[in-house]
Design a protein that fits this description.
136 residues; two-stranded antiparallel sheet; alpha+beta; Terminase; 5 helices; globular
């Protein structure tokens, strides 16, 4: 097992060209937070309300034909997650979150894509913007 340092390295290396990094507060990936912050990666930590908004945005874009993705054969883990996920209610506002259709189903690829999309919709970060650093 390689542990998780490879993930921290990968994210930190790609951070300069990344719009956002989002981690659900209930995710095991929270263990990466301190190391990512030490590498100056700004992380959006989401809660259940954010997940409701994220799933809503995802489903709205899907319904409106504004969400594109790789073909199933190029992203088989995502295809399996989508095929085996359903929605569940979050709170009393009508928001929904993803739920696996069975205890042996891994929907983490779908959750990751949902949070990635959400992160791009709430960030002000533009990795293509030219920035100037002034020290004085």
């Amino acid at each position: 097992s390689k542990g998780t340092q490879w993930a921290v390295d990968y994210i930190a290396d790609h951070w300069p060209r990344t719009a956002s990094v989002a981690i659900d507060s209930q995710s095991p990936a929270m263990s990466l937070l301190a190391d990512l912050k030490a590498r100056h990666v700004k992380v959006i930590v989401t809660n259940y309300s954010d997940m409701g908004r994220a799933c809503g945005k995802f489903l709205d874009m899907l319904r409106d034909g504004k969400l594109t993705h790789l073909p199933d054969d190029k992203a088989p883990a995502l295809a399996t997650a989508v095929a085996n996920a359903t929605t569940r209610s979050i709170g009393k506002s009508g928001a929904v979150g993803w739920n696996p259709m069975g205890s042996d189903i891994d929907i983490s690829p779908l959750v990751a894509c949902t949070l990635a999309l959400y992160g791009t919709t709430i960030t002000k970060r533009d990795p293509d913007r030219v920035q100037e650093v002034m020290i004085g």
